[in-house]
Design brief:
By secondary structure, this protein is of the alpha/beta class. Helices cover 27% and strands 22% of the residues. The relative contact order is 0.20.
C-alpha cells in the first residue's frame, strides 16, 4: 500500500472539504445501511482524500443516530488507507481553551445502545483498543494544525457521552475526576470500528466551549458554541491542506493495517457465509488471507 488516501470524517461545522480538486461524489451503499452522506473523493495538493460529513451535509443527523458502521465501511470502500476524525468538543480543563485543538489519544466510552462492532452473528473478532489512536497520523495532524495557525495540544482523553443533551454539572465534575480532558458525542464507537476495519485512526478535537464544571459559569449555550465552531472549521480546512503537504511520498505499512490477523477467533470452517459477505470491505483482506 504505497499511496496515501486520507479518509476525513467531518464533525459539527465541517460539512465540505474546501480546496478538493477533481472532486466526485460517490453514493456507496453498505451492508450496514446508508452512510451520513455521499462520499466526496478528490485530491488536495496531489494527495488523495475521501470526505464524509458525520452529521450529513445539513447537520440533520444527531449524535445517537449517526450510522458509524456505514460511515467507516463507506470510507474504506472509497479507498481510505487512514481515517482522520475532526470533532467539536467541550473542554474539561482550564488550559484547553475554546478555539484550540487537542490531538486525542485515549477515550472513555459512556455511550449506550450504539452498534459498536462489525463482528458477531456468525464471526467473532476481538481487537485491542489499549492504544486507540495511530501515533503516526496523529503526529502528522498535530503538526499540520500548528502550521495552519492553531494551538494544538498533543494527547488528551475524550469522554464520549450519549447526548444530544449537554452534561449536568455533576457529570462534568465527575468526568474531570476521572482524568478526562474533553467531552464529545461522536468518537465512540467510531474509533472502535476504525480499528476493526484496519484503518489507522486519529482524532482532532476542536474545543468550542468549556463544559459546565466551572463555578459561576453559565451553562453551555449552542449560540456561543456555533460561533467558535465556525472559526475552528476554517482552521481545520487549513490544517488539511498542510497535512496533504506534509504526508511522506510513500505510505509505509502500519501495524494497524493487519490487526485482524490476530483478532478473528472463529475458525474459517465455522464462519457464517452471510457474515463474511457483510465484512467484504472492512475485513476482506483478513478473510481472504485466512488459512483454509
Amino acid at each position: 500500500m504505497a499511496e496515501w488516501c486520507i479518509g476525513v470524517l467531518g464533525g459539527s461545522g465541517l460539512y465540505e472539504l474546501a480546496g478538493l480538486e477533481d472532486a466526485e461524489q460517490l453514493s456507496l451503499p453498505t451492508p450496514w445501511g446508508a452512510p451520513s452522506a455521499p462520499v466526496t473523493r478528490g485530491r488536495i495538493g496531489g494527495r488523495r482524500f475521501v470526505f464524509l460529513p458525520r452529521h450529513g451535509a445539513g447537520h440533520g443527523i444527531g449524535p445517537s443516530q449517526v450510522n458509524a458502521r456505514a460511515n467507516v465501511d463507506a470510507l474504506k470502500r472509497a479507498g481510505a488507507t487512514d481515517l482522520l476524525a475532526i470533532s467539536a468538543v467541550g473542554s474539561l480543563r482550564e488550559e484547553l481553551v475554546p478555539g484550540e485543538f487537542v490531538l486525542v489519544d485515549q477515550f472513555v466510552d459512556r455511550t449506550r445502545g450504539r452498534p459498536s462492532s462489525f463482528f458477531g452473528d456468525g464471526i467473532v473478532a476481538h481487537v485491542s483498543m489499549a492504544d486507540p489512536v495511530c501515533p503516526r497520523l496523529s503526529g502528522l495532524a498535530g503538526e499540520a494544525a500548528r502550521q495552519a495557525g492553531a494551538k494544538a495540544h498533543d494527547g488528551g482523553t475524550y469522554l464520549a457521552m450519549e447526548g444530544p443533551q449537554f452534561s449536568t454539572r455533576a457529570e462534568s465534575r465527575l468526568y474531570r475526576q476521572w482524568g478526562c480532558d474533553v467531552i464529545g458525542m461522536t468518537a465512540m464507537p467510531e474509533a472502535k470500528l476504525a480499528r476493526e476495519a484496519e484503518l489507522p485512526y486519529a482524532l482532532v478535537a476542536m474545543v468550542t466551549d468549556y463544559d459546565c464544571w466551572r463555578d459561576g459559569q453559565a451553562a453551555v449555550e449552542v449560540e456561543s458554541v456555533l460561533a467558535t465552531m465556525r472559526a475552528n472549521a476554517k482552521a481545520a480546512a487549513r490544517m488539511l491542506v498542510a497535512l496533504a503537504a506534509a504526508l511522506p511520498e510513500r505510505r509505509e505499512a502500519s501495524q494497524l493495517d493487519t490487526v485482524l490477523d490476530y483478532a478473528i477467533v472463529t475458525p474459517p470452517a465455522e464462519r457464517d457465509a452471510r457474515a463474511c459477505e457483510r465484512l467484504d470491505a472492512v475485513a476482506g483482506r483478513a478473510l481472504r488471507s485466512a488459512p483454509a
